[in-house]
Design a protein that fits this description.
19 helices; 63% helix; disordered C terminus; alpha+beta; globular
């Protein structure tokens, strides 16, 4: 399947969305057109689309169960209480900072950004209604704060960076605090201010606020139970190695909050309300999965992955890499691209390069004896970089093919190592 077909399908989906067609149907139509133009039959296109939906199924389930937490927070008035407290404590001018900081702190302790946004979103929407703020600018503030938290958090990227530089993980996280803080301030004081911050339907917002104020609202202490329990459960993964999936943590936090707020009778209506709100997002994700299946050929990707049989596979971080073994020699293979682009590579070409590496490139003579292959990098332009290690001199060397090059060319087979060693930082 060609990348051009997938690109045309994605462009068509965007065009249909702009033309006010349902986003879900727009994505499905784009996926069908992209698959057919990419050379797939109709049955193959449906198969690829279905595989793409399977990839987003975990996210769909988490979104649906998040409806328990958001429904309880909204229907019990907890979001109103929390948002009022944020506004009263920090002032209306600091609302964006409060939301960005809250999402940043969640992500900094290891909570995934989508889960963090889902957790803070009910409070943000309540604030938006009270102050007549645009949901888009609220979302930008939360996403910006979440990304800043990711810089600090002990995620796979941070762990790999610490290992490559032989640094302590906590030291790397501490060094990232300053960039995270700079990013937080840039989000709040630059990006947010560039966006329209108010909505036109002010009358409706005020009516909604009036209805919320007429309810018997819970106390701030009990209102915080649901998000606090959720945060504690999610933080157990990075803090204690106890992995509680958001699929469990989000509804459990919501139910604990409802019990503490003595809202037993409102649990079922709140869950129904949350499901109704989240089902729209879940359906959109299914449409996204169909176009994602066309962009990423799952069958081809699995075929390539089985060819190399990598261990410790890391995907899209930002590149894909893993440890493989050929002729009892282990080395790392990296695809300098994400999995979607990786699935578009020519399988026969990759298989041929793997065989050539096994025959000629696992070890190369160097000045002090034999150098060992430690890394192979496949690039989007079909060039290849091989990195070798000289244990006698503790130095790394690399050789590379030109664009659309091959390792079986006489030039590559007879290429000698350069006199200068490579910068070790380029290996990271």
């Amino acid at each position: 399947m060609t990348a051009i077909g997938a690109l045309i399908g994605l462009s068509l989906s965007i065009l249909l969305i702009i033309r006010k067609l349902s986003p879900t149907y727009s994505l499905i139509i784009g996926a069908i057109v992209g698959g057919l133009l990419g050379g797939l039959s109709l049955n193959e296109t449906v198969t690829v689309m279905t595989a793409g939906v399977k990839e987003v199924t975990p996210a769909v389930l988490r979104i649906l169960t998040a409806g328990v937490l958001s429904g309880i927070l909204i229907q019990t008035g907890a979001t109103t209480v929390i948002s009022n407290a944020i506004i009263n404590k920090m002032g209306e001018k600091r609302v964006f900072m409060a939301l960005a900081l809250a999402t940043m702190l969640l992500c900094a302790v290891g909570v995934f950004i989508d889960v963090a946004v889902i957790t803070v979103a009910p409070v943000a929407l309540s604030i938006g209604k009270r102050l007549n703020l645009s949901p888009s600018v609220l979302l930008i503030a939360m996403i910006g704060g979440g990304k800043c938290g990711n810089i600090i958090s002990p995620n796979p990227n941070t762990i790999i960076a610490a290992g490559n530089f032989n640094a302590d993980l906590s030291a790397v996280m501490f060094a990232n605090i300053l960039p995270a803080v700079i990013g937080l301030f840039f989000t709040v004081f630059v990006i947010v201010r560039l966006m329209p911050q108010t909505v036109k339907n002010k009358k409706t917002m005020m009516q909604t606020e009036d209805k919320e104020e007429e309810r018997n609202l819970p106390s701030l202490r009990t209102s915080l139970i649901a998000p606090v329990v959720t945060i504690v459960l999610l933080a157990l993964r990075p803090a204690a190695g106890i992995n509680i999936d958001p699929l469990i943590a989000l509804p459990v936090g919501g139910l604990c909050g409802a019990i503490c707020m003595k809202q037993w009778k409102n649990i079922l209506p709140s869950i129904e309300y949350g499901l109704q709100k989240m089902s729209v997002v879940a359906i959109l994700l299914i449409g996204t999965g169909t176009i994602a299946g066309i962009i990423k050929n799952e069958e081809q990707f699995n075929k390539i992955k089985m060819l190399f049989a990598p261990q410790d596979w890391e995907a899209d971080s930002p590149f894909c890499h893993g440890l493989i073994e050929l002729n009892n020699i282990k080395f790392r293979v990296m695809f300098r691209m994400n999995e979607a682009a990786m699935s578009k590579l020519n399988f026969d070409w990759l298989a041929a390069q793997k065989d050539i590496i096994a025959m000629h490139y696992l070890q190369r003579p160097c000045g002090s004896g034999i150098c060992q292959l430690v890394l192979v990098v496949f690039n989007l332009d079909y060039s290849i970089t091989l990195v070798y290690y000289d244990p006698a001199k503790d130095r790394h060397y690399e050789i590379s093919t030109p664009k659309e090059g091959a390792l079986d060319s006489p030039v590559m087979l007879n290429m000698e190592f350069p006199d200068e060693e490579i910068d070790n930082s380029s290996l990271n």
